[in-house]
Design brief:
The protein is an alpha/beta fold and 324 residues long. The chain has a single domain, classed as TIM Barrel (Alpha-Beta Barrel), CATH 3.20.20. Helix content is 44%, strand content 16%. It has 13 helices and eleven strands. The protein has helices at residues 15-28, 52-62, 81-94, 108-111, 121-139, 178-187, 198-209, 226-237, 244-247, 253-259, 265-271, 278-290, 306-322; strands at residues 3-8, 32-35, 67-70, 99-103, 147-150, 155-159, 171-174, 190-193, 214-221, 273-274, 295-300. The strands form two sheets. An eight-stranded parallel barrel has the order 1-2-3-4-7-8-9-11, surrounded by nine helices. Strands 5-6 form a two-stranded antiparallel sheet. Helix 1 (15-28) runs parallel beside helix 13 (306-322), helix 3 (81-94) crosses helix 5 (121-139) and helix 8 crosses helix 11. The longest helix has 19 residues, at 121-139. The protein is globular and about 60 Å long.
């Protein structure tokens, strides 16, 4: 049976609200939660971008059952992979072994802030592959074993985790095309994606991912007033249709503002489930299930509409999805 998750969207809510929201999501019966790891929002109208790892630590203490996952962290520029391994090990301890580490090749939007050149896609995948090797070596080594690494992009000198996790941290890799699917299939414990394309799973399987979990994500805009939901989705989420070849390279929220200036509310309403109709939401989520995703995380658009969403999801949406 497919598991359904709740997204802590750092770009649209304050850190303290995100922790309160995930607590309510756990009470509403969501199976797991994921969190975005951004330095900036996609659009100025979203207006937030707290530090995901502090929020994860607080969420681990505020909840008891719900699984937690970074969705996703880029370990190639803003963070060194050795530091990401330390973060993940700490989260696994704080959460009582409820944490999974989602990794990806990142976006210029978040990584350029450290003042380094934004690499081409091919170089980013090379860097991510090295980073995954380093992180896995540190997370899965014996507690008294040091890790040394000399790569094309990263070096690690006599590193060890002094507080290793009691259970192995599963590693997920975000995919969007053949190169990332090959990397995920060969090196990850699970596949991460935001598009319900069956071919992504097929390429993941062909590279060694057969039988491993696949975690998808889809945005929705629940509201008793459908017009208000469409307006909110257009104001905050119209960037989603640009595609990852564009999303990965634009440098700041103003760039996304300009790139989406001609996207209409009608186009957003056609692509995303908006309003109170459960059937409409199920119709937009179901393609992930049909494509073989074992888990689907939902993003409710709008910071001030999270409590209404989780209450409605508990009553109507989650039962409808689980009946499929």
């Amino acid at each position: 049976m497919t598991a359904f998750g709740y997204t802590m969207m750092c770009e649209q809510s304050r850190p303290d609200q995100l922790v309160a929201d995930v607590r309510r999501a756990e009470e509403a019966g969501f199976d797991f939660s994921v969190i975005s790891d951004h330095y900036q929002p996609w659009l100025p109208t979203q207006g937030h971008s707290g530090y995901a790892w502090s929020i994860l630590g607080a969420a681990a203490q505020a909840t008891e059952r719900i699984g937690l996952m970074s969705y996703v962290t880029c370990p190639i520029l803003r963070y060194h992979p050795a530091i990401v391994a330390q973060k993940a090990a700490t989260m696994q301890i704080l959460s009582g072994n409820r944490f999974r580490l989602g990794l990806g090749a990142g976006e210029n939007l978040n990584e350029h802030v450290v003042g380094k050149r934004w690499p081409s896609a091919g170089v980013r995948h090379e860097m991510l592959s090295e980073a995954v090797d380093i992180i896995a070596a540190l997370l899965h080594s014996d507690s008294d074993e040091t890790v040394n690494y000399r790569g094309r992009h990263f070096d690690v000198e006599s590193a060890r985790l002094w507080d290793p996790p009691g259970e192995r941290v599963p590693i997920g890799i975000a995919v969007s095309g053949p190169d990332s699917c090959r990397l995920a299939g060969s090196k990850a414990d699970l596949m991460v994606a935001v598009e319900p394309k069956p071919e992504l799973g097929e390429m993941f399987d062909a590279a060694g991912g057969s039988g491993k979990p696949r975690v998808g994500q889809v945005a929705v805009a629940y509201d008793a007033d459908r017009d208000a939901a469409v307006e909110r989705a257009h104001a905050q989420f119209r960037w989603f249709g640009l595609g990852w070849k564009v999303n990965a390279d634009l440098p700041n929220p103003d760039s996304f503002e300009g790139a989406t200036q001609f996207v209409t509310p009608g186009q957003v309403a056609e692509a995303l489930a908006c309003g109170p109709d459960v059937d409409e939401h199920v119709e937009k989520i179901k393609p992930f299930i049909d494509a073989g995703y074992t888990e689907v995380a939902l993003v409710q658009i709008g910071a001030e509409h999270q409590e209404q969403f989780t209450s409605w999801a508990e009553r109507e949406l989650l039962p409808a999805l689980r009946s499929l």
